[in-house]
Design brief:
The chain has 167 residues and is α+β, with helices and mostly antiparallel strands. The protein is 35% helix and 27% strand.
């Protein structure tokens, strides 16, 4: 039987240091803000995504958010909630929301961290990859909704086609 080795690092430092190491290994530019959150811009097929990492030390959570480089027009803000509900039903992890101040669609996910145990690099890498993949998948839905004035069902009907065959 094969065994899988994953690198665990004893967490006697801020878990965001591990995130910073992952970002450095990917040669991404990043910054830490005054609250010690990490922000990194990652290029995708549809746009550049703003990945942000932070920690809520009170309830021992690490969170990842991924903002889409797209603003929902003010006249569409009231109708966005049905699209969010439809998309969120299809997500494996996390949820989309629209930040009311900036009108950006954002994927958010969080998971608990036991600060007195080890933290797995692979878990953080996988969560980051999944966030980017979900944003790539649903970016066209937000764009169609925002600029083509389609309702949620029409928007998703066009995007959720499954292709078969080989290219």
């Amino acid at each position: 039987m094969k065994s899988i080795k994953s690198q665990n690092i004893k967490n006697n430092f801020n878990p965001l240091d591990l995130v910073e190491d992952i970002i450095n290994r990917n040669d991404w530019d990043y910054e830490r803000d005054k609250n010690k959150n990490i922000h990194v811009e990652v290029s995708g097929d549809w746009c550049d995504y703003q990945l942000s990492y932070g920690i809520n030390e009170d309830i021992k959570l690490i969170y990842i958010s991924c903002a889409l480089d797209l603003k929902i027009p003010e006249n569409r803000m009231r109708d966005i909630f049905s699209l969010l509900a439809e998309i969120n039903e299809k997500l494996l992890i996390g949820h989309f929301e629209v930040w009311t101040e900036d009108s950006w669609p954002v994927l958010r996910q969080s998971f608990p961290i036991a600060f007195n145990q080890s933290l797995c690099r692979n878990q953080l890498e996988q969560a980051s990859i999944m966030a980017l993949e979900e944003c790539e998948k649903f970016y066209p839905a937000f764009q169609m909704f925002a600029w083509d004035n389609k309702d949620a069902k029409d928007t998703l009907k066009h995007l959720m086609l499954e292709t078969q065959g080989e290219v």
